[in-house]
Amino acid sequence: ELENLSDAPFSGDEENGGSEERKTEINGNWIPATSITEAKINAKAKRRLRKNSSRDSGRGDSVSENGETQKTGVVIPTSPKGKLLDRRSRSGKGRGLPKKGGAGGKGVWGTPGQVYDVEEVDIKDPNYDDDQENCVYETVVLPLDERAFEKTLTPIIQEYFEHGDTNEVSEMLKDLNLGEMKYSVPVLAVSLALEGKASHREMTSKLISDLCGTVVSKTDVEKSFDKLLKDLPELVLDSPRAPQV
To answer: Model pTM?
Structure first.
């Protein structure tokens, strides 16, 4: 009954005047005015708490009787974007697991650990070619041009001056596609030897002798020395004793 009391001020009928306490009759009982005022204040506070609790119910906060807010946990609001990324079935069925164990998406190789068998060639396939099974694929190495030739062979010859193994140089040159630049191998070796020591010149003679017939032909060696004689004026600028050497 105390919660339903109105907020209207007291009428003059209950006032006895003087210092006597103001009283009101409720259900045949006389109640002091001070207790009625406290009841109204408590009723207002409870109504305010009920409004705040209903307003903050979606925020995850609860209001105590003292008017203090208590954190009971954060509720993540649902958004349309989150529903689009949801992998659960729209019909409400299923456990929300990825399709085909995670191997059903676009661009997926398959489940981890899955081993594929060798695919057999279908003879009835319109793209089938009889010569396809007998094809042999080889790695094509492009021939070296003049700039790439010097840049590639210079460190090989300089390393040869340190270890002196002609077989190693021969194997490295065989892996290269020298093309029409074969005759330039003795030219580069002699040019580097003219700038080095006497031991380097002896090693160059042995290198040209071992490469002749395997990497370069006798014709290539003849062509290389003809070029060295033509380029002798330029070699003298770097090695003044080039003609005698």
So the answer is: 0.45
Q: Which residues contact 26 (CB under 8 A, 6 or more apart)?
A: 1
- Domain 146-238: give its CATH code: 1.25.40.180
List C-alpha distances in Å: 203 to 118, 160, 183, 192, 207.
Answer: 54, 8, 18, 11, 6
What are the structure tokens assigned to 80, written together?
Answer: 């349309």
- Dump pLDDT digits (tens) for 151-195: 999 999 999 999 899 999 999 998 888 888 899 999 999 999 998
User: With the CA atoms of 233, 239, 244 and 245 taken in that order, what torsion angle do they form, in degrees rounded to the nearest 10?
Assistant: -120
The number of helices, as runs of H, and strands, as runs of E, in the chain is 8, 4
109 CB-contact burial (10 Å; exposed 0-12 / middle 13-18 / buried 19+): exposed
User: For residue 217, what are the CA distances in angstroms to 179, 182, 227?
Assistant: 13, 9, 16
Return the structure tokens found at 239.
């090695």
Domain positions in the chain are 146-238
CA atoms within 13 A on the CB side of 1: 6
Given this model, what pLDDT does residue 93 score?
A: 67
What is residue 81's predicted lDDT score, i.e. its pLDDT? 54
Q: Report the C-alpha gap between 166 and 184 in whole angstroms.
A: 17
